[in-house]
Amino acid sequence: MIPKIRLKRRSEFMSFLTRIDEQIEDQYHELSGQASGEALKVLLESWHSAKFAAGDAKSMIDDIDSTIGHLIDFRTRLSKSVETGQPMQNSGHCAAETKELLSSSWYGGEELDVNVAFYNENSQKLIGEYESVTFESVHGHWWGKLVDSGFANRPLRILDVGAGAGRDSAFFMNAGHDVLAIEPADKMREHINARYPEIRVIGKSIPMNQTLPGNPFDLILLSAVWMHIRPDLRKQAFDDLATHLTKGGKMVVFLRHGSFNDGRQEHPVSMEELKGYAAANDLSLATSNEGQTDVLGRSDVYWEIAILSRPSI
């Protein structure tokens, strides 16, 4: 069972927006014959309530400012309608846009929030699983290629997306590389901070729609992440990451084939999909260990590894 505290709060906020929309509709009809000042006074009371709910949700909605912007625009258009006495066109349009914005921006959608909740709830079990296998057993094949080619024989700036328990970030750090870890699950971040205090870890999800601290990255790793990203958000996610890649840099993406049976949600993945995103960002794509078996011994799971490279010039 997955307690959906965030989903519950989101649902409450969405319901609140719906009620506000209905109340404003009623107020519009009641106030259409009154002075604009009185209309604004009543509307502002509703607006302050909406703002309070939005503030409560702000920590979980990256683009809450856009949400508030929709509501402000709606209030402005309604006020103008009251002042002029002209009917307001598409009175429910703004609220509908706002709810659509919330649906699309909530950690990449409700599904990703369910997955984050799963990783938080099962953090201790998952940390044990992740740390039961070594970096070399999971990543040795492609990492060995980068070492043999000379690419990894120098200090690299590395972005570890979906860092989990921090095992891979710790390996990179101990090898002398500069690492930034991204991990949306609070419990996983707490573990990384406690066990590997030298590692910088931030709580973001992709698509990020934001810049990251510091310079671009020589290497970006997405290990067991891509299957959680909704297909309609993947292009934006890929483009976001590609903008943070240096000239001559590489992005390594693990493609997981096989369904979850524990409540996590995933989407189909393919090399063909990545090829399209790579071409659009001037990256070349190579594979490493096609059909790699699962190191945790899950017979119904196998992996493909994509190595994407940006030209040096």
Can you offer a commentary on this structure?
The chain is α/β, with parallel strands linked by helices and 313 residues long. Helices cover 50% and strands 16% of the residues. The protein contains eleven helices and seven strands. Strands 3-2-1-4-5-7-6 form a seven-stranded mixed β-sheet, sandwiched between helices.
Quick description:
With 313 residues, this protein is of the alpha/beta class.
- Largest β-sheet summary: 7 strands, mixed
Shape: globular
Give me the number of helical elements: 11
Report the strand count: 7
Beta-strand share of residues: 15-25%
- The average pLDDT score comes to 77
Low-confidence stretches: 1-7, 47-68, 91-111
Label the structural class. Answer: alpha/beta
CATH architecture of the largest domain: 3-Layer(aba) Sandwich
Elements, N to C (H/E): HHHHHHHEHEHEEHEHEE
CATH class descriptor of the largest domain: Alpha Beta
Which properties best describe this structure?
313 residues; alpha/beta; Four Helix Bundle (Hemerythrin (Met), subunit A); Rossmann fold; 2 domains; seven-stranded mixed sheet; 11 helices; 7 strands; 16% strand; disordered N terminus
